[in-house]
Q: What sequence folds into this?
């Protein structure tokens, strides 16, 4: 069988997803040997982004116009395309600025704006249709594995769509929200991490982004009863997935 | 309630003894050679039902656990069903069912009844071989409750605090201070129970047991009136309490389902090895609070959060036509572990108060 | 014996019905636990992909059965790319099928919407074999447009045994159709039937079944003689996984065929 041709593309992000995929994840060796890596900036020089690709992985948020243009070309050259990582899936850290006027943010950060052409940050699927989301920061092992094996097996991937709490309970963790009154984002966050933070007695901070149709305002109100300030609550819902409808509704309750 | 009958045998009530707790624990230690002993034990953060290496680890005075013993050690949260080989001609391989022997000690009445409930799902018309093997090879030593947690409402459901099921478990303990009242229920545990220092219990002990039950019954703060409940919830599917509770509080996080000792729902998931040589099919717990649970092509029969919450509550407090019993055993776990404290008994009461 | 254990079945033949619907003939040998009755279903799957419930669209014949499958997701897409000779893993038959016994000596009305004709096709095969057992037999079939009609080549043969009426929701622009246009309920309104002696088997989208049943009730039909086939998400087919639960019933075991009065008015349903 011919090895599927894989391309890995990077926009505004830390490149951690690419490192995760090619240097750190559990199934690294199989990944490297099962795919023909045609383009990936962090592991090979001289690869070509021209395609065609059997599978394209795109990391990073779209924050400049040229990125959107290139992304559309890559979509055309790729049989399947997955958004990978919090930035590409939800806007992630680059989208922290999503709720402020672009010019204000630019002025805030750069003295000289002449070379700056940023646009409002959006996830990849705001510009092109994607075949699925590999969530997380860094991306979760389970869904990454599912994406890669699905591409090899030529089937549709079955990504997790449930809450982090389900994974947390499967692990038998004591709930940090109920027991220790920590502001855990697990109930409204899409699964995939295996409830990593709660497993270490920490509150989930939603690096996997909003579970679809999550009732974020209800959790925000619950956080209020824990004594959190409105600002702190708003920050909880704008850290990794500020651009989502679900989290916007919660942040809006407490933003001034 | 008639259990599976498998563990019951023809004789269900055999003999009763009074035995010091110390001797009882020594007896469990003596069983470690032939059995895996599972019981309530501290894991550093909470009491969980887990395998213990010595009876000293057992915390039989626990009040409740987050996860129920039956759903951890008889029906498992995740189970491998088949292994397929994919290279060349595809073949299916069966995986061996449980072939050990285990004893679960200290199972509260609610959790014992929950196992009897799971029997209806997995030992019904279609028997699940994995469940059946574990069920048959698990001795259940139940323990009556003399302490009651704030969310317990087994009294209202008739499933506790003292156990009165007529089959499906092997031994019943009642805390008598320094001693246990031991009721041996099945022949297989009778054969194992040869303990020096055990003396036959008689009327006096049973009078004391009755008194203890009476005082336990007085400790309940949570109750629910189950009369007429079955059709009441079904007849009020659009009662405002569903919409209000789900809009204001329910997170669709499924904690309620995951901790429920009777929630049996599972998903079937295949996993392919990256070398494309094998695939494993397993099942794992699934939850009706999850958005995709009732989704079909082109629609979702419970797209609304209110409909999902209603599915959970009606499956616990209505729908007795399914198995002839209520789906809740009153353990209160879904209330305790709900991040926003949603309480099914309060929902039912609200409907009872303001029914149409 | 593990009831969840599927057996291999090879694809003997594939018929392209419409864009994303194909009919497969599977050689099952003795893989099935019983002779499938019309209205029952199999769980069909592929290792590494998963399983999906699919109704029989043909009776068992020479060790072969038929399924008509629309490619809509993981499993069905995967099967949609298979070729003759490829193998699937299946198990069944499951569930309670159409109550043909009740229809004996009565008029039988079949109402189908879209791919909902597939589970009724074995009923038609039975009718063809035993035409005298039934009174008048009517098939009302509605589809979105002409290109979505299933089993086109068989209509002519069927018409010797039943009276077939087809309607399409819309006509392709400028096309002249040999079928009537409009919703199937309009077709029902125009159909004369002896409601008191009619047993109806209905399969299609739930909203279509609802309107169809209501139309029949208005004509004086008896709710206990109207049967619908419910579609729910299914993972096991054997009343264990809980996905198909509907008002305390397991659709996989207690159904998928129910009489209208068994399931009408349920929360979470449209009937
Ligand atoms: C009793 C019964 C008989 C059926 N008969 C036929 C038939 O004869 N021909 C046919 O083409 N289809 C039939 N279906 C529908 C078919 O089972 C689904 O389309 C199929 O399960 C989708 O599986 P998938 O893995 O391809 O899709 P998935 O990738 O699982 O999902 C695709 C979409 O379908 C939904 N879905 C998942 N599981 C089911 C399910 N069990 N039922 C419905 N939708 C689901 C998903 O939520 C998603 O929206 C029947 C369903 C039932 C319950
Ligand atoms: S700790 Fe967080 S993720 Fe875990 S169950 Fe509690 S709320 Fe959910
Ligand atoms: S645990 Fe509570 S918030 Fe979560 S789904 Fe259940 S009822 Fe809703
Ligand atoms: S309450 Fe929901 S998850 Fe629990 S058994 Fe019922 S349907 Fe299944
Ligand atoms: S619900 Fe009843 S049986 Fe269960 S722990 Fe509480 S008191 Fe014991
Ligand atoms: S399909 Fe699993 S219970 Fe009906």
A:
């Amino acid at each position: 069988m011919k090895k599927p041709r894989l391309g890995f593309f990077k926009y505004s992000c830390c490149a951690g997803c690419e490192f995760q995929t090619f240097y750190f994840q559990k199934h690294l060796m199989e990944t490297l040997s099962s795919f023909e890596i045609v383009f990936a900036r962090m592991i090979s020089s001289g690869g070509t982004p021209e395609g065609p690709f059997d599978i394209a992985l795109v990391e990073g948020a779209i924050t400049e116009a040229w990125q959107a243009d290139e992304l559309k070309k890559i979509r055309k050259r790729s049989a399947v395309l997955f958004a990978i990582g919090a930035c590409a899936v939800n806007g992630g850290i680059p989208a922290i600025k999503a709720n402020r006027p672009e010019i204000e943010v630019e002025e805030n950060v750069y003295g000289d704006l002449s070379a700056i052409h940023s646009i409002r940050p959006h996830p990849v699927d705001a510009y092109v249709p994607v075949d699925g989301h590999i969530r997380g920061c860094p991306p979760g092992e389970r869904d990454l594995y599912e994406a890669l094996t699905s591409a090899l097996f030529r089937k549709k991937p079955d990504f997790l769509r449930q809450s982090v709490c389900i994974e947390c309970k499967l692990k038998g963790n004591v709930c940090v929200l109920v027991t220790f009154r920590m502001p855990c984002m697990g109930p409204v966050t899409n699964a995939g991490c295996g409830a990593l933070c709660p497993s270490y007695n920490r509150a989930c901070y939603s690096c996997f982004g909003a579970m679809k149709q999550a009732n974020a305002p209800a959790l925000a109100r619950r956080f209020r009863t824990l004594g959190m300030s409105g600002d702190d609550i708003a920050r909880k819902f704008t850290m990794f997935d500020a651009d989502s409808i679900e989290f916007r509704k919660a942040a809006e309750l407490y933003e001034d | 309630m008639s259990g599976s009958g498998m563990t019951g045998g023809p004789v269900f009530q055999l003999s009763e003894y009074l035995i010091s707790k110390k001797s009882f624990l020594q007896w469990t230690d003596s069983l470690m050679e032939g059995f895996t002993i599972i019981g309530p034990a501290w894991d550093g953060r909470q009491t969980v039902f887990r395998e213990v290496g010595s009876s000293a680890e057992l915390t039989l005075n626990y009040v409740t656990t987050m996860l129920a013993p039956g759903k951890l050690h008889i029906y498992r949260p995740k189970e491998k069903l088949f292994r397929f080989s994919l290279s060349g001609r595809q073949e299916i391989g069966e995986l061996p069912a449980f072939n050990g022997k285990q004893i679960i000690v200290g199972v509260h009445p609610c959790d014992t009844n929950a196992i009897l409930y799971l029997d209806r799902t997995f030992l019904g018309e279609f028997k699940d071989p994995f469940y059946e093997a574990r069920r048959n090879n698990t001795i259940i030593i139940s323990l009556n409750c003399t302490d009651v947690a704030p969310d317990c409402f087994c009294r209202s459901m008739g499933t506790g605090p003292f156990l009165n099921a007529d089959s499906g478990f092997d031994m019943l303990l009642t805390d008598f201070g320094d001693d246990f009242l031991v009721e041996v229920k099945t022949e297989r545990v009778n054969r194992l129970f040869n303990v020096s220092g055990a003396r036959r219990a008689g009327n006096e002990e049973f009078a004391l047991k009755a008194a203890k039950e009476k005082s336990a019954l007085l400790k309940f703060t949570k109750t629910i009136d189950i009369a007429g409940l079955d059709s009441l919830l079904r007849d009020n599917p659009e009662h405002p309490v569903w919409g209000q509770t789900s809009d204001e509080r329910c997170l669709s996080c499924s904690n309620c389902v995951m901790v429920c000792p009777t929630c049996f729902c599972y998903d079937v998931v295949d996993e392919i090895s990256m070398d494309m040589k094998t695939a494993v099919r397993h099942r794992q717990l699934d939850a009706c609070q999850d958005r995709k649970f009732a989704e079909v092509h082109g629609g979702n029969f419970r797209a609304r959060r209110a409909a999902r919450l209603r599915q959970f509550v009606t499956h616990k407090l209505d729908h007795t036509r399914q198995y002839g019993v209520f789906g809740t055993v009153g353990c209160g776990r879904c209330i305790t572990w709900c991040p926003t404290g949603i309480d099914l008994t309060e929902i039912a009461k609200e409907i009872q108060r303001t029914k149409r | 014996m593990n009831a969840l254990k599927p057996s291999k079945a090879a694809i003997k033949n594939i018929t392209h019905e419409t864009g994303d619907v194909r009919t497969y003939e599977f050689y099952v040998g003795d893989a099935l636990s019983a002779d499938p009755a019309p209205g029952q279903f199999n769980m069909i799957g592929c290792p590494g992909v998963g399983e999906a419930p699919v109704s029989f669209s043909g009776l068992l014949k020479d060790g072969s059965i038929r399924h008509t499958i629309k490619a809509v997701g993981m499993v069905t897409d995967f099967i949609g790319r298979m070729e003759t000779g490829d193998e699937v893993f299946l198990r069944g038959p499951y569930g309670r099928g159409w109550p043909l016994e009740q229809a004996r000596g009565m008029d039988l009305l079949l109402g189908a919407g879209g791919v909902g004709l597939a589970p009724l096709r074995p009923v038609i095969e039975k009718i063809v074999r035993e035409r005298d057992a039934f009174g008048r037999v009517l098939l009302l079939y509605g589809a979105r447009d002409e290109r979505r009609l299933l089993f086109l080549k068989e209509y002519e043969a069927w018409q010797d045994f039943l009276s077939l009426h087809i309607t399409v929701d819309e006509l392709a622009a400028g096309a002249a159709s040999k079928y009537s246009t409009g919703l199937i309920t309009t077709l029902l309104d125009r159909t004369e039937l002896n409601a008191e002696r009619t047993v109806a088997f209905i399969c299609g989208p739930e909203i279509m079944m609802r309107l169809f049943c209501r139309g029949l009730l208005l004509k004086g039909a008896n709710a206990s003689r109207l049967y619908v086939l419910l579609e729910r998400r299914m993972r096991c087919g054997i009343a264990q996984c809980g996905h198909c639960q509907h008002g305390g019933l397991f659709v996989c075991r207690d159904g998928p065929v129910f009489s209208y009065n068994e399931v009408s008015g349920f929360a979470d349903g449209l009937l």
Q: What stands out?
A: Chain C is about 20% helix and 35% strand. Residues A 164-165, 168-169, 173, 175-177, 184, 186-187, 195, 198, 204; B 255, 339 surround iron/sulfur cluster (ligand 2) (CB under 6 Å). Chain C has a mean pLDDT of 93.
